[in-house]
């Protein structure tokens, strides 16, 4: 078609071509900026100081940063969890090089084999012991193929690693598009075959390829999708969501238990030991991470997906009766798992609650981590929440008893639960009483309160030779006097005790 002045069709075509060209150039410039920032971030990270030496020793090898570190870099979030894939170097050569640059381990802290069939290494560079820093994961490219008749258990997946395998093939085995990107450390290029960067920009959780295949390979990926959607406040793409809901019906399937070598385990009577296709520990960990990052979204996704019905049917029934049941979680600001789970499980009996720990048990996680909660703390909180008269009962306690119940982390949790449930009057009443006791003791926080009178003081003042119940009761009376302000010093308290 000849371009003549005033030809509307060609004018529009020319304008659109210019727009597309400009957009492509802007995209390229934007990507170059991202890649440059990622490369500089790697260069500045102390624990990755070994990378230049690696390339110097292995000039023909390729090194790719993969997984969450790439995702979080694009989201401009900090990430200290580094996963790399090395291509072009055999497993034995990688292991030998890493071992020569590994931080020496203390006796009893020997490294346990990790993914021995997958070509995976846990690497702690010298100067960065595993006890203080996250280990660096290093693997060879690998693919996963679902065995015939797979149950969706991770043990049904056949994993093949090959140091000559293209990185693109490795990325194709991953779960979600936002986790299926790789950054070539040598060239500075971002490899994104499945649109992960675009899904990050649009706030979408999408499975790589066919979601049915991904979940058939490993059902734990469904809970990872829910966790990532909660953590990032993203939407799960419809096809991925549909496959997830369908497959969720199978999460309670059981399969023969196997050892590390794939041999089926049997009990002493020769019967095959059965276990869940998805370990409850895996589900617990993903649920904990989701709840501590975005409790409202996480619990609703667990309900809507059918996971709650399969794992916690009694809780599912309560949610069916009350659609607004989980609205209380919107008031929770701190990622305290005991508070979150107690509010979720309120209304259940102690027996039902303890039964739920067979499916989801946060006490399995490491001590001191945000995704651990003690069973006893959760049970106690639920029992307190379930008792509408609990606040008044606490007010009727002797001061030393009140202190024992509320002057601690569990007491703080209970006040938070009361407020989340709309019981502001009761929470304020308890808090005012507690604050008055702190003022009487002349402190700003309950942790600063220390008993002025000791057991030795009591025995000396009363002429008691041996401690026992009598001394214990006198000490409790001494604490009562201290908390009510009737005794400001040791001498004053002892004088009143003797009166």
Textual characterization of the structure:
The protein is of the alpha+beta class. Among the domains are: 62 residues, no CATH class; 44 residues, no CATH class. The chain contains 23 helices and twelve strands. It starts with 7 loop residues before the first helix and ends with a helix.
**Secondary-structure content class:** alpha+beta
Low-confidence stretches: 112-117
**Overall 3D geometry?**
elongated
Beta-strand percent range: 5-15%
* Distance N to C terminus: 113 Å
Q: Which value, in Å, is the CA radius of gyration?
A: 30 Å
According to DSSP, the number of beta strands is 12
Mean pLDDT: 88
The side-by-side strand order for the widest beta sheet comes to: 3-4-2-1-7-8
Helix content: 40-55%
Number of helices in the DSSP assignment: 23
Characterize the main sheet.
Answer: 6 strands, mixed
């Amino acid at each position: 078609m000849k371009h003549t002045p005033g030809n509307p069709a060609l004018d529009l075509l020319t304008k659109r071509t210019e727009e597309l060209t400009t957009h492509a150039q802007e995209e390229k410039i934007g990507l170059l900026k991202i890649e440059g920032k990622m490369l500089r971030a790697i260069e500045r990270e102390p624990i990755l100081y070994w990378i230049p030496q690696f390339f110097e020793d292995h000039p023909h090898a390729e090194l790719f940063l993969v997984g969450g570190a790439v995702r979080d870099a694009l989201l401009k979030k900090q990430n200290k969890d580094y996963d790399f894939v090395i291509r072009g170097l055999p497993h034995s050569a990688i292991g030998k090089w890493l071992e020569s640059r590994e931080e020496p381990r203390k006796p009893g802290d020997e490294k346990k084999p990790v993914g021995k069939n997958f070509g995976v290494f846990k690497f702690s560079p010298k100067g960065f012991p595993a006890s203080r820093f996250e280990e660096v994961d290093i693997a060879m490219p690998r693919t996963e193929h679902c065995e015939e008749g797979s149950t969706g258990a991770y043990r049904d997946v056949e994993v093949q690693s090959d140091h000559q395998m293209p990185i693109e093939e490795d990325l194709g085995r991953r779960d979600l598009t936002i986790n299926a990107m790789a950054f070539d450390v040598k060239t500075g290029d971002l490899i994104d075959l499945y649109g992960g960067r675009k899904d990050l920009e649009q706030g979408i959780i999408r499975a790589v390829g066919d979601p049915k295949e991904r979940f058939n390979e490993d059902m734990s990926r469904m809970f990872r999708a829910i966790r990532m959607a909660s953590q990032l406040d993203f939407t799960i793409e419809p096809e991925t969501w549909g496959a997830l809901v369908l497959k969720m019906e199978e999460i309670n399937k059981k399969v023969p238990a196997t050892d590390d070598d794939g041999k089926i385990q049997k009990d002493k009577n020769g019967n095959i030991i059965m276990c869940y296709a998805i370990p409850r520990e895996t589900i617990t960990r993903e649920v904990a991470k989701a709840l501590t990052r975005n409790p409202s979204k996480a619990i609703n996704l667990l309900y809507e997906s059918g996971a709650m019905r399969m794992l916690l049917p009694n809780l599912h029934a309560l949610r069916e009766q009350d659609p607004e049941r989980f609205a209380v979680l919107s008031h929770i600001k701190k990622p305290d798992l005991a508070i979150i789970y107690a509010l979720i499980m309120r209304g259940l009996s102690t027996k039902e609650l303890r039964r739920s720990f067979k499916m989801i048990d946060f006490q399995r996680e490491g001590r001191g981590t945000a995704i651990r909660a003690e069973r006893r703390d959760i049970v106690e909180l639920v029992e307190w929440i379930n008792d509408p008269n609990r606040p008044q009962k606490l007010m009727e306690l002797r001061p030393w008893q009140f202190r024992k119940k509320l002057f601690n982390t569990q007491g703080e949790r209970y006040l938070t639960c009361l407020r989340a449930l709309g019981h502001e009057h009761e929470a304020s009443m308890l808090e005012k009483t507690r604050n008055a006791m702190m003022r009487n003791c002349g402190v700003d926080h309950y942790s600063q309160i220390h008993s002025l009178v000791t057991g030795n003081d009591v025995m000396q003042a009363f002429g008691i030779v041996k401690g026992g119940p009598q001394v214990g009761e006198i000490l409790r009376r001494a604490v009562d006097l201290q908390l009510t302000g009737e005794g400001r010093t040791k001498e004053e308290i002892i004088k009143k005790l003797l009166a």
